[in-house]
Amino acid sequence: MAPRKPPSRKGSMADVPKDLLDQINRLEDLFIVPAEKLKEITNHFVKELEKGLTVEGGSIPMNVTWCMAFPDGYETGTYLALDMGGTNLRVCEITLLEEKGEFDIIQSKYRMPEELKTGTADELWNYVADCLQQFIEYHHEGEELGQMPLGFTFSYPATQEYIDHGILQRWTKGFDIDGVEGKDVVPPFEAALAERKLPIKLTALVNDTTGTMIASAYTDTEMKIGCIFGTGCNAAYMEDCGSIPKLAHMNLDPSLPMAINCEYGAFDNEHVVLPRTPYDIIIDKESPRPGQQAFEKMIAGLYLGEIFRLVLLDLHQNPDCKIFEGQDVSKLKKAYSLDAGFLSAIEEDPFENLSETLDLITHKLSLTPSKPELELIRRLAELIGTRAARLSACGVAAICKKKNWATCHVGADGSVFNKYPHFKIRGAQALKEILDWPAGKGKGRGDPVEILPAEDGSGVGAALIAALTLKRAVAGQTAGIKDPEALLKSPMAKFGVKE
Ligand code: GLC
């Protein structure tokens, strides 16, 4: 058995020469976000969330989702859920059971080929429909299925006039497929299903954050916000219709709840308040959608490794310090070659001499940093990871402040939340600083606003939202459902009836 790793390292800058120390100090100035700044960001954030709900709108889309209820735990039926995430495509079949809050799930994962993200719309929809077909053939060979309701988790900003339709505003998270932006994504998707004669009816188009909120609320009634800290970052919460000026023309009962997909990755696209570094500016310029997702580009998993790479490359080229002097930096020059997992691994190195970090850098970049350079590398990873966690807390705090919620549970999911070391505790500490909690709070467990690992939002959450849609259609509450008649005539309507 390998020897147990020491739990943490103290680290020391004692042997770091002056030129490198100067650089470390400069990086600290750039990346550390003090409490006062977090508060300023949060206050501006609250105003922007409000602006997004108005008719004029702002840069945060605050998309109305037509998910208009929390589950009560007694939803039933069998649903398909499709999750088109960044890396994988997942198909699930979820049976919501009679027992409160219980469900069965079977699922298959398919790799999302990298080429698909920059390919054509046809290739995308054909691939997605092929995966669904494979799933049905594998699990239901020869069965007569009737029609199965589908919750489709499509985790990109979409304006929804109806729960079962959505116009993609713009791609995020590095996707760049022509001919989809500005259009309804449902018809081409349904056409691909029809071509294959699949017995599936898209019942709800769901954002991963809304799914996360609903899935988490299925088992925890204190849950009020669903968040993703992953490849992208975003949150959803339940608003009341009366506080959504851009819905006023619909004359909905002002007390009805409406889930809002904030799409707050777009916060501060106008660059008013976020402390952007020169590296953040490069990330934006070189991305497929410059000027978009300003907040997301500073904190989401897709960008953390790239920020780190850009800083190291800059320090190599900087005549004042020249790290990796005389070495071949060709691998370091490759954009997006380092991911958030790489940064996590550096932050997880428990050894005083940073031997694991040395291995990682040697392996991945064919570079041999000196001991002081390793100290700088580690500090840089901490700075980038800490900034991400602290800025992330601003979004959650802003929703709580906007809604005057002093306490609540927040369901969170995503690779950064689940895997990045210290992310949770750094986020909790930042919430404490922003929301002025007393000493002893800010540790996560038992905090007034507690960010907890979520239930499976894009699987169970999407199924629940499909269930809730059928349930309210049957109850005659048909706002935001494109063709309620058809839904009520379909065999799926039985899932909306309480027995
Ligand atoms: C991006 C998407 C958003 C999604 C988030 C997390 O911000 O635009 O829809 O919720 O990533 O996956």
From TrEMBL:
Protein name: Phosphotransferase
Protein family membership: Belongs to the hexokinase family.
CC terms in the record's Gene Ontology section: cytosol; mitochondrion
Pathway note: Carbohydrate metabolism; hexose metabolism; Carbohydrate degradation; glycolysis; D-glyceraldehyde 3-phosphate and glycerone phosphate from D-glucose: step 1/4
GO biological-process terms attached to the record: glucose metabolic process; glycolytic process; intracellular glucose homeostasis; mannose metabolic process
Catalysis performed (reactions): D-fructose + ATP = D-fructose 6-phosphate + ADP + H(+); a D-hexose + ATP = a D-hexose 6-phosphate + ADP + H(+)
Keyword Ion transport among record annotations: no
Key words of the record: ATP-binding, Glycolysis, Kinase, Nucleotide-binding, Transferase
Organism: Melanomma pulvis-pyrius CBS 109.77
Domain of life: Eukaryota
Domain Hexokinase C-terminal, residue spans: 224-468
Catalytic EC class: transferase
InterPro entries registered for this protein in UniProt: ATPase_NBD, Hexokinase, Hexokinase_BS, Hexokinase_C, Hexokinase_N
GO molecular function: ATP binding; D-glucose binding; fructokinase activity; glucokinase activity; mannokinase activity
Hexokinase N-terminal domain location: 24-218
